[in-house]
Write a structure and sequence with these properties.
Elements (H helix, E strand, L loop, with lengths): L18 H12 L27 E4 L4 H13 L14 E6 H7 L15 E8 L2 E8 L2 H16 L8 E4 L5 E5 L19 E2 L2 E2 L4 H12 L4 E3 L12 H14 L5 E6 L3 H4 L11 H17 L5 E4 L16 H12 L5 E5 L19 H6 L10 E6 L22 E7 L14 H22 L9 E5 L14 H12 L7 H13 L3 H22 L37 E2 L17 H8 L9 H4 L2 E2 L10 H24 L7 H33 L14 E3 L4 E3 L2 E4 L10 E4 L1 H6 L5 E6 L5 E10 L6 E7 L2 E2 L5 E4 L13 E11 L4 E7 L8 E10 L1
Parallel strand pairs: 1-2, 2-4, 6-9, 6-15, 9-10, 10-11, 11-12, 12-13, 13-14, 14-15
Antiparallel strand pairs: 3-4, 3-5, 7-8, 16-17, 18-29, 19-22, 20-21, 22-28, 23-27, 23-29, 24-25, 24-26, 24-28
Helix pairs in contact: 1-18, 2-4, 8-9, 11-12, 11-13, 12-13, 13-14, 14-17, 17-18
Bound molecules: alpha-D-glucopyranuronic acid (GCU).
The site of alpha-D-glucopyranuronic acid has 8 residues, from loops.
């Protein structure tokens, strides 16, 4: 047990139990119960004082500003004020104020640390004649609020406040989230339900969740929120919509979160009635100026514009032979008098590349287009650069553009929503990934600085594409660690801010301080990115998914043979993109010489990026002595075991976390473990067939205990070819879809006679859970249900409307007794568009 604040040892009678409440709400939402969406569902719990701790309950502000008022309210909520804990004056007081206010109230007080970076804060404990006092001082009002949240964090984590003296300031001025919400309430790449901001073309009436979101954002230091999709931005500049956006700004303002909008550069023509949107046309410039004036009349602290132009079908300055700098500067000039900024995205590339051209390379695009414009951007333009040169893949090298714009302000864009990383159905903690990315960025920027000592390589901002929705924010409780980690890294991207530390902070605030819970949750979080990488895209292959469709399940060839340029160029001999200067696309040469030299040679390229930079024979040996092909096999098998291990680890927490949450996360991890096997089999089979090289360990192409649906005695079921072939075992499955068309209620069945050893086994059923219907499945042995949970409804909302790796799902039935001659039957009952398609049944290892 720890001592209370400033050494006062007292006990608060009851510790406040918040974990259950928060997640009960998440689950409630999932099951259709109408409950408010609150910050408590995430890490920000009211009454967050661990048992035995005492914190001052009296909180007062020295100034009268809005954010100081919020700071006071948040501290009161955090330390129990709203949970009925009676203030105990002897526990001391918390005083909040700006540095100026603190210094005039306490002239003798010395705040340690001289830094006056805006938005920074000091936390300092004092003993006074009237008891202990904690001072929360901010460089400005936002700093006061961030200091208050820092104090909440420390207390929730059970950190001692004794001798407290802390100073912290953000590394970047711009710490924004981007939401890709559409006016109709849908969200591009959102996996947490519908928009908290919009519905039916308008801003929603009830903005309570927006306020709660602002609380979450401010608690980790995020100070800006761009609320709308970069791909359908024009309607947002309509006057009525702007009035609605002003309400959003009002809702977020008390937490210091400024609102920004994505804009379509063709707006002057699309909604302004002009015949052009040429950024150098004076009428266009005047239009933007008038629009900015109108926005600031409604939202005086409007943060600025985000722009996607000349990219993936979005209009842009190229239509008029103008550059991104021309477009950015026109917008910047309109915002400048009001203090707004333009975040101009460097995600500009040609998606009609020539696949047959060995020199064509999408990875080159951002640097090729933006580097020549260095120094040409207005002072209030920030070029927003995706972390990697392609598109949020599971691993990419850091974009060379960070080292190629020494005279331009730059922000790094990362993705919190897990578009290519399992769409929140898979657990992937991104703190680890971003820390790796930031470390690479640091190395590269240092090398660029050495090559060009005049330039400034420092980032100005970090932007996280969040896409939160109404269903528990990100749709999955553990995915919230990513929103948290983003904020913490945007505040402090230095190596001292370890992903491990951030995970621990998040876990403690979210689940409490039980050491077993903290250890297990953190172990799973910290392993998860590497595991996901191993089964979806090891060695720098990027995510081997359907890049032109769902971006979710396995589809190795989907990246090839098209203009999108996410190629890995696999053939019978080898795999990987040759991006060297000597023989490839030259992309490696965009890095500063010191780094470029490393990437030029496979021997000096880190294994995680090997095939990103080099096309290598399958027989090429890595430093660990393994061939490329054997590494691909081994990593997939290892990853599937690791994913299964997450389930086992989580099971140790039964009874230690809220029961509803336990069950929810267990279901998700079980699904992930099954889908990791789907991924493993697809990628291993694909490269095994293509390379013709055997797996040294004999696993590829060999599935002991697997009973294929197409080999079964079928009744009603029909055999189909699954596309892509690697998404089903031996490329085939069976579907009951046709049978459904004939009769309103109809079931199909597949039957096998078991001929293995007698025993008790885990039996996995691999089926396809299609949208548009809730098919039912039942497994029997000799006509009796195989287990008590051997009948289920396949009602998950997975991508794709035909059976493939997006919706292939494994369900494991435990402890099924089998003897030779037993008849195993799967009965599938289709529903709507879901044909109860089945791939195989697999009798696993068992007890004899
Ligand atoms: C990805 C994503 C798109 C998005 C784009 C962007 O390509 O799939 O939905 O619009 O990134 O960042 O603009």
């Amino acid at each position: 047990m720890r001592s209370g604040v400033l050494g006062t040892v007292k006990k608060i009678a009851s510790s406040v139990c918040f974990v259950g409440l928060g997640f009960g709400l998440v689950l409630g939402l999932g099951s259709g119960v109408l409950l408010a969406q609150t910050a408590e569902q995430a890490w920000l719990k009211d009454g967050q004082v661990p048992a035995g701790e005492v914190v001052p309950q009296t909180v007062r502000a020295l100034g009268g500003g809005r954010l100081e008022k919020t700071a006071v309210e948040e501290l009161r909520r955090g330390f129990g004020g709203t949970r009925g804990v009676k203030p105990d004056p002897s526990a001391g007081e918390i005083v909040v104020g700006t540095v100026g206010e603190v210094q005039s109230a306490y002239p003798a007080l010395r705040l340690r640390g001289k830094d006056s970076t805006p938005e920074g804060y000091w936390l300092q404990g004092e003993k006074t004649d009237n008891g202990p006092r904690v001072i929360v001082a901010g460089a400005d009002e936002r700093g006061v609020l961030y200091g208050a949240f820092a104090l909440r964090r420390m207390v929730a984590e059970g950190q001692p406040l004794e001798g407290l003296t802390q100073h912290s300031a953000p590394a970047f001025a711009v710490r924004w989230v981007n939401e890709w919400d559409n006016a109709d309430g849908s969200i591009e790449r959102g996996y947490g339900g519908r928009s908290i901001f919009f519905e039916g073309g308008k801003v929603r009436q009830d903005l309570t969740p927006v306020r709660e979101y602002a609380r979450l954002l401010a608690s980790v230091g995020i100070n800006g929120c761009n609320v709308n999709n970069v791909n359908s931005a024009a309607p947002f500049l309509d006057p009525e919509m702007l009035r609605g956006v002003a309400r959003i700004a009002d809702a977020m303002r008390p937490w210091g979160v400024r609102v920004a909008l994505s804009v379509d550069v063709a707006s002057p023509e699309k909604i302004g009635g002009l015949k052009t949107y040429d950024p150098l046309d004076p009428a266009v410039q005047a239009w933007w100026k008038a629009k900015a004036d109108a926005i600031y009349a409604l939202i005086p602290d409007f943060a600025g514009f985000t722009v996607k132009a000349d990219s993936e079908g979005q209009p842009g300055p190229a239509s008029y032979g103008r550059t991104p700098a021309d477009a950015a500067n026109t917008l910047a000039a309109a915002l400048e008098p009001h203090g707004g900024v333009v975040l101009y995205r460097a995600f500009v590339y040609n998606h009609h590349l020539d696949w047959n051209d060995p020199k064509a390379d999408r990875a080159r695009a951002a640097y090729d287009i933006f580097h020549p414009l260095d120094g040409k951007f207005a002072a209030n333009v920030i070029v927003q650069i995706k972390e990697g040169p392609i598109d949020f893949q599971v691993r990419e090298p850091v974009s060379p553009l960070f080292g190629g714009l020494p005279r331009t302000q730059k922000a790094m864009e990362v993705q919190i929503t897990q578009e290519y990383l399992g769409q929140q159905r898979h657990l992937v903690y991104l703190g680890t990934k971003w820390q790796w990315v930031l470390f690479q960025e640091n190395l590269m920027s240092a090398a660029a600085k050495e090559a060009n000592p005049e330039g400034s390589e420092r980032l100005t901002g970090m932007v996280g594409v969040a896409c939160v929705g109404r269903d528990g924010w990100l749709g999955s409780p553990l995915a919230m660690a990513n929103l948290y980690a983003f904020g913490r890294l945007a505040w402090n991207p230095s190596i001292q801010m370890r992903a491990t530390k951030i995970a621990e902070e998040w876990t403690r605030q979210t689940f409490g301080n039980d050491p077993d819970v903290v250890r297990v949750v953190d172990d799973i979080l910290l392993q998860s990115w590497r595991t996901y990488e191993r089964y979806t895209g090891p060695l720098g292959l990027q995510t081997l998914t359907d890049v032109t469709g769902s971006h979710y399940g396995p589809n190795v060839e989907a990246s090839e043979n098209n203009g999108w340029g996410q190629w890995h160029r696999a053939d019978h001999e080898g795999v990987g993109m040759d991006r060297t200067v000597a023989t490839g696309t030259g992309f490696a040469g965009q890095y500063p010489p010191e780094i470029a030299r490393l990437y030029e040679n496979p021997d000096s390229t880190v294994s995680g990026l090997l095939l990103f930079f080099h096309h290598l024979p399958y027989t090429y040996r890595l430093h660990n002595g393994k061939t490329v092909i054997q590494s691909i096999y081994d990593m997939h098998y290892l990853a599937a075991e690791e994913a299964a291990g997450f389930v086992k680890q989580w099971e140790t927490l039964e009874g230690k976390v809220d029961a509803g949450l336990y069950k929810d996360v267990l279901g998700r991890l079980e699904y992930q473990a099954g889908h990791a096997i789907v991924w493993r089999d697809a990628v291993v089979e694909y490269f095994w067939k293509l390379s013709g090289i055997a797996d040294e360990k004999g696993r590829a192409g060999n599935f002991p205990g697997r009973l294929e649906a197409e080999d079964a005695k079928l009744s009603g079921y029909q055999v189909i070819d699954v596309k892509p072939w690697e998404d089903a075992s031996r490329g085939k499955a069976v579907t009951c879809a046709a049978a459904k068309k004939k009769a309103a209620t109809h079931s199909c069945s597949a039957e096998w006679t078991y001929d293995g050893a007698p025993g008790v086994f885990d039996v996995a059923v691999d089926y396809f859970d299609l949208r548009g219907g809730a098919a039912r499945f039942a497994v029997s042995v000799n006509g009796k249900p195989a287990t008590s949970d051997a009948a289920w409804t396949a009602d998950a909302q997975l991508p794709s409307t035909r059976p493939d790796g997006d919706n292939a799902t494994r369900r494991v039935l435990h402890d099924v007794g089998l003897a030779p001659g037993d008849v195993i039957r799967v009965t599938g009952t289709p529903d709507g568009e879901d044909g109860a398609a089945l791939d195989y049944v697999e009798v696993g290892k068992g007890r004899e």
